[in-house]
Specification:
Elements lengths: L2 H6 L10 E3 L4 E4 L4 E6 L2 E2 L7 E2 L9
Antiparallel strand pairs: 1-2, 2-3, 3-4, 3-5
Bound molecules: zinc ion.
Length: 61
């Protein structure tokens, strides 16, 4: 995951910053508690593709 690419990517919902979860290969929006999958190195920035993070799931990074 390119660090510069990560800098320009924002959450499509709240336009907030995202954090990269290396383990799950997801971009996480802490505000919305959504995880956007990265497939073949390409972030999927679609709300419909995002995973809702369970309330008990710890957000790393
Ligand atoms: Zn968001």
């Amino acid at each position: 995951m390119d660090a510069k690419l990560l800098e320009i990517l924002v959450c499509p919902l709240c336009k907030g910053p995202l954090v990269f979860d290396k383990t799950r290969q997801e971009l996480i929006c802490k505000a919305d508690r959504l995880g956007f999958p990265i497939r073949d190195g390409i972030p999927t920035m679609l709300e419909t593709e995002a995973r809702e993070l369970p309330a008990d799931e710890e957000i790393k990074a």
